[in-house]
Amino acid sequence: MKKLGVYISLLFLVVSGIVFYQSLHLPYTGAFGPGPGLLPLWISAIVMVLSVCYLVVSLIGEDKTIFQAFPKDAGWVNVFAVIGTLVLFLILVKKTGFLAASILALFLMFLRAYRWYWSLAFSAGVSVCVYVIFDVLLGVPLPEWSIG
């Protein structure tokens, strides 16, 4: 498959064009500010411009096959580590709550690049910050510990 970038940019151009057209049917403004059509209109317009830029770069640049787009040996380990950690988080979040599941998931992710004590400190810090922002400040309910 020659010129993979051309096909990908055309796909994004078509999808963003459809979203742009559909967002024109939504109200741009609402009673108190931006309406439901504002965000999809602007995001799809930006994606269309970026798709055209990527199309030009792909036409000018060298050929890339689909096999060059995928990661090599060590890259696959990273991909499966991220997927496995996300699956583990999804399994644990209902049983242990958000804080425990996110600390464990982030710990496993950081452990690949940092020492264990830095990984634990970073994962606990990030998880507590996210919990405070969403649960305490914004009032968004996060999953709680289901055992106690």
Structural write-up:
- 72% of the residues lie in helices and 0% in strands.
- By secondary structure, it is mainly α.
- It folds into two domains: 4-69; 73-137, no CATH class.
- Helix 1 packs antiparallel against helix 2 and helix 4 (73-110) crosses helix 5.
Arithmetic mean pLDDT: 89
Distance between the termini: 55 Å
Structural class: mainly alpha
Give the number of domains: 2
Tell me the β content.
Answer: under 5%
Task: Flag low-confidence runs.
Answer: none
Biggest pleated sheet: none
Order of secondary-structure elements = HHHHH
Total number of beta strands? 0
Q: What is the CA-based Rg, rounded?
A: 21 Å
- Label the overall shape: flat
Q: How helix-rich are the residues, as a percent range?
A: over 70%
Discrete helix count: 5
Short description:
This protein has 148 residues and is mostly helical. It folds into two domains: 66 residues; 65 residues, no CATH class.
Based on the model shown, name its key terms:
0% strand; 5 helices; single chain
Give me the secondary-structure topology:
Blueprint: H1 4-23, H2 38-60, H3 66-69, H4 73-110, H5 116-137
